[in-house]
Write a structure and sequence with these properties.
Layout lengths: L21 H5 L7 H19 L7 E3 L4 E2 L1 H10 L9 E3 L6 E7 L5 H17 L3 E6 L3 E3 L9 H11 L9 H11 L8 E6 L8 H14 L2 E5 L13 H6 L5 E3 L4 H11 L1
Parallel strand pairs: 4-5, 4-7, 7-8, 8-9
Antiparallel strand pairs: 1-3, 2-3, 5-6
């Protein structure tokens, strides 16, 4: 069943990812000017920090500052003949999600790829449980291949080293390769995020088998498609149509607002 996310309006100053300029948050990536590109990338990096700052609901013991744990404090006091030598405390640890991001780097995704990689590697810098892959006609793990501080140079290096960058797409073969070679990255706590327009040159039966395997082992499957920005879009391409029955959330991926929706979903 696909999930529909509520539309939430951010309050000025209340969120580290908030932009006072809604035009910038709604600006399509493929229409951004050179000046706007840098500003949009800063917003995406702040979104990554927002997710990294999230705290768990559970309380765990801490040697530092936190909420006083009276039960443990009394136990410590009994061990020291009733003297409260120190108060036991608990705090909420950072709640780090386990996320695998799989980015379609075929030619049709070129206008959006810089922005998505900016967010992905900013996320990786602050959350260790994030893995990043590029795929087109083959799969490449790029988790440690990009320096977030030198994104332009890093993207250019990836374009030169990732096989068939800006070429065609065989989504089924690449997802099957991921399932077969990286099973340790897929678990009941893992969210799989595929960013692709679903325009596939490969075997749809292979895509169905790979999506079925992911569905059985992962916690959640998210598919972001920049073509959803167009209200007239219908997922009629064979690849996209084959993948959708296994997807929990199908959403757009064309501007900052669409990435904000993903952030809420990961939470």
């Amino acid at each position: 069943m696909r999930l529909e996310l509520p539309e939430l309006e951010p309050q000025p100053g209340a969120d580290p990812g908030y932009s006072a300029n809604p035009m910038l948050r709604q600006k399509p990536f493929d229409q951004a000017s050179a000046h706007e590109i840098a500003a949009i990338e800063k917003l995406l990096q702040r979104l990554a920090l927002r997710l990294a700052a999230r705290r768990s609901r559970r309380l765990v013991p801490t040697p530092g500052h936190g909420v006083v744990d009276l039960r443990r404090s009394f136990r410590h006091a009994l061990a020291s003949q009733g003297d409260f030598l120190r108060l036991a405390r608990r705090t909420r640890p950072r709640d780090e999600p386990r996320v695998v991001l799989l980015y379609d780097t075929s030619g049709s995704m070129d206008p959006h790829m810089r922005f998505h990689l900016s967010f992905a590697f900013a996320l990786r810098r602050v959350i260790h449980g994030v893995e990043i892959f590029a795929f087109n006609t083959s799969l490449t793990r790029v988790t440690r291949a990009v320096d977030p501080g030198r994104l332009t140079r890093s993207v250019a290096r990836l374009a030169a080293t990732v096989p068939d960058w800006s070429g065609g797409t065989r989504i089924g073969a690449c997802l099957a390769d991921f399932v077969a070679t990286h099973p340790h990255l897929i678990g009941r706590a893992t969210t799989i995020v595929v960013v692709s327009d679903g325009l596939d040159l490969g075997d749809t039966a292979q895509l169905v088998a790979a999506m079925c395997a992911l569905r059985e082992r992962a916690r959640t499957i998210v598919w972001l498609n920049p073509l959803l920005a167009d209200s007239r879009y219908e997922p009629s391409a064979a690849g996209m149509r084959s993948a959708l029955p296994f997807v929990d959330y199908f959403g757009p991926a064309h501007n900052v607002e669409s990435i904000e929706r993903l952030l809420r979903f990961l939470r």
